[in-house]
Amino acid sequence: MNIQQLEYLIAVDKYKHFGKAAQACFITQPTLSAMIQKFEDELDVKIFDRTTHPIRTTDAGAEIIKEAQKVIDSVMELKNKANFLNNILAGKLNLGIIPTVSSYILPNEIFSFLNKNPQIDLNIKEMTTESIIKSLKSGELDAGIISTPYAAADEFYQDFLFNEELMLYSASQETGTKKDCFVVPEDIDVDKVWLLEEGNCLRTQFENICHLKENSLKPGNLEFLASNINTLIQMVDKVGGITILPEMGVEQLSGEQKQKVSRFIKPFPYREISLIYYKPTYKQKIIDELISDIRVSMEKRLNYYKDSENYVSIKPE
Predict the structure, then answer these.
(1) Could you tell me the pTM of the whole model?
(2) Are 41 and 23 in the same domain?
(3) Using an 8 Å Cβ cutoff, are 95 and 123 in contact?
(4) Largest CB tally within 10 Å, which of 23, 97, 175, 257?
């Protein structure tokens, strides 16, 4: 029995297919099959039912794979500890990011960080704040990026990342907005606002700014709960109305769409984004470097760092 066999077991259980598992493990299918058969013979336990399609993990096999995952996790932690002691920036970090942040920092800050640190493996999941907190407690995640302050996250260590201005995106015929136009929250027609689904922190922040409700533009027979900002942008473009947009989202808009962006009147509302984690670990060096990289990048990208005295924080709950 060896570590590779355990990795092969986990891969087959994940993909339910020997060929796909072999491809993911960068070996041939005959080699993977032979290694798993050898493992089964050694323990005298049938891990997989090969007569079904997709392949089914047996009840006994499921228990074995749970233990195999624990062993793999322990091995990874041992490697991380060795890297820490040797002052090497390497290892694996499981990171959850809220959807209203992930699409903006993944192709920029995260990719840049990985390019500079090829020995680091980041396993990133796009998750709600609530799911991130649950996964941190269960050990599924090492860290999460959320909007703070957030009461349920008080038990975690929190490291500030950046402050980002909250802006408006509106159909041109609704407000005639231009890039430098300023909007008073009380002047917004609350019946024409598109909001993200319940539980999304950015929705709550928008509600806190303008005391908003769902708009009257959607058909009465439509139940619509958007989970990402791009969907709301499309709704504004096609149907009309208004939605909220974090500053980083402006960079991804077309020239025509950027003309639909306006700022609130001073003090400008902003959201705070932080990285949270359950306790210091041997992955702390990776976490610290990631935090530093994001901070440095954001200070160059965002308006807040040019005149911070003109901003006011909007809580996500």
Answers:
(1) 0.69
(2) yes
(3) yes
(4) 97
Does residue 218 belong to any structural domain of this protein?
yes
| Domain shared by 154 and 283, yes or no | yes
For residues 203 and 62, membership in a common domain is answered with: no
The confidence score (pLDDT) of residue 312 equals 86
Q: Is residue 86 part of a domain?
A: no
160 strand-pairing partners: 274
Confidence band, pLDDT 50/70/90 cuts, at residue 209: low
Cβ(271)–Cβ(263) below 8 Å? no
Q: Could you list the residue range(s) of the whole structural domain that residue 204 is in? A: 163-269
Q: Is residue 278 part of a domain?
A: yes
- Which residues make beta-bridge pairs with 226? 196
217-to-173, 214, 275 alpha-carbon distances in Å: 14, 9, 37
Tell me the one-letter amino acid at 168. Answer: L
> Total structural domains in the chain?
3
Phi, psi of 140 (to 5 degrees): -70, -35
Query: Taking a C-beta distance cutoff of 8 angstroms, is the pair 163, 270 a contact?
Result: yes
Tens digit of pLDDT for each residue in 257-301? Answer: 998 998 888 888 899 999 999 877 778 888 999 999 999 999 999
